[in-house]
Design goal:
The protein is α+β, with helices and mostly antiparallel strands. It contains four helices and eight strands. The protein has an eight-stranded antiparallel beta sheet with strand order 1-4-5-6-7-8-2-3.
């Protein structure tokens, strides 16, 4: 569940990481309540889930002094082969419960969030420590599966660092009962 919720705040596949991100115009910004109303439409089956997060491409931009193999090391560290987690009946009934409400300490703007007909899409832009992260996401969902493609770009980090990545998150329901400790 957490994996789906985290990925829902970042974005859609492209040929080059960061290509589909962009600023959200003030006139297009959505309130957290509007975003929550859209994400609440995603209904998941309670029980044991299995998910995976895969970094498709990573662009480290202008990282000064980065070792040649840093990109591969970062991709490897971020990729998860398999993660099992439990979705409670309460979480299944309210999948966005903590996702956006928990962003109170972040300077984030949301736009274009929509969930209908088994598809979900949206944008998020967050400012932090002198930098900005823009992300776009799109995917599909059903009560027993989800798949989300993301495109994210961070600019203005330490020493003007930029980074972009495309990633995919997928999950499937595997059992009614959760395995203890998951």
């Amino acid at each position: 569940m957490t994996l789906l919720l985290v990925t829902a705040s970042v974005a859609a596949c492209s040929d080059k990481p960061g290509d589909k991100t962009g600023e959200i115009a003030a006139t297009d910004a959505m309130s957290k309540q509007q975003v929550k109303a859209q994400v609440d439409k995603v209904q998941l089956r309670p029980g044991q889930w299995e998910g995976r997060f895969t970094v498709k491409d990573l662009d480290l931009g202008n990282m000064p002094g980065a070792p040649a193999n840093m990109k591969d090391q970062m991709k490897s560290a971020m990729n998860q082969t398999s993660l099992k987690y439990c979705v409670t009946p309460e979480q299944a009934a309210n999948p966005s419960g903590e996702m956006f409400a928990g962003q109170e300490n972040k300077n984030c703007t949301y736009g274009g969030f929509e969930a209908k007909g088994g598809t979900v899409k949206g944008q998020v832009s967050c400012k932090s420590q002198g930098g900005t992260m823009n992300a776009t996401m799109s995917g599909t969902y059903a009560p027993e599966t989800y798949a989300m493609d993301m495109d994210m770009k961070m600019v203005g980090g330490p020493q003007g660092m930029t980074m972009a990545m495309t990633a995919r998150s997928e999950g499937k329901w595997i059992a009614d009962r959760c395995t203890q400790g998951e």
